Amino acid sequence: MTLRTVFDGDHLRASLAAAPDGATGKLMVTFDFRQVGKIDFAPANVSASFAKAGFAQLSIKTRANDWFINPDTRGLDSALAELATSFEEVRCLGYSMGGYGAFRFARALRAKSVVAVSPQVSIHPDEVPFDRRYRAESRGFGLNDGSLSARGIDDLEGLVIYDPFVRPDGIHAKRLAALFPRIRFARLGFGGHPATRVLRASGKAWTVQKAALEPGAGQIALLHAHRQGRRATEGYWRKLADYAMPGRPDIAHFARAKAAGLKAAAAHREVDGSKR
Prior knowledge:
8 strands, Rossmann fold, eight-stranded mixed β-sheet, alpha/beta
């Protein structure tokens, strides 16, 4: 799939892949996610699923873990606003830092919907004193360009996917609900951060892309896939055990036994496979 650079700054980059049939009616915008040790642009992302659905795809990358707030932010705003005029329907998808980015640039893109996995409403200490996970990255996060407090959109549709047992993520979701009142929520208990770890471990990560295409129907598919996937996901049972131990040791012991059984079964399959 051929990519065309539509914004190329020192800090931000946006690359466009046309829809397979050359149509320009629908655009899916994906945003970079935080990576430990990130010092340069990652390759642009394109999805066969989005292409099959007839979407052109815009991949937005940042050179550093800066939540897209840097000297290029306003330039990207302008470039996105101009690009969006070529499309009748714009949808956005992002994970964590990318989820914040989807909300941050939704207005410039005239987005119809946003699907965000474990997003932040901000990383500035004054706005989110409850979340200390990104203090190092927050040093260059300017409120003029980064705050969503004046960037809410009353009619923006979509879905926020998060683990309610990750306390900061739950507070971020509540804050986003106040700014984007039509957003729905998919609460994937003990899915971690990002909240899709059970989906990924069970081979159901594709349900997030389905949600990006159809947020309403996708919400149900996500919840169903998470319920199915957790049965055979060791990490889910370990997190449940840790959470339950203080007040419900009976549940904790059951969950730990379940996790141990899944771990043993996986080890057995690995040994069995190596003998073939």
